[in-house]
Amino acid sequence: LWISPNVSQSTTLYQAQTGDTLTGLAERFNTTPELILNTNPFLPADVSAPLPLDRPIKILNRYPEDIIQAF
To answer: pLDDT means per 10 residues in the chain (71 residues)?
Structure first.
């Protein structure tokens, strides 16, 4: 079984709340801390650090479009 690298993306702009962390956002939006950081370089690299409350955070949600059966 092989998952296609082609993915569809939807973007969410999220306003951080007190206590939010990269790890928590990644879990909430079904993505990874690394993808959130790549999209928002102003965020702290420490995945457990509180996020800044003054800027919206862009979150790309990735979903596999198709699964292809290997032969």
So the answer is: 50 94 94 93 94 94 49 43
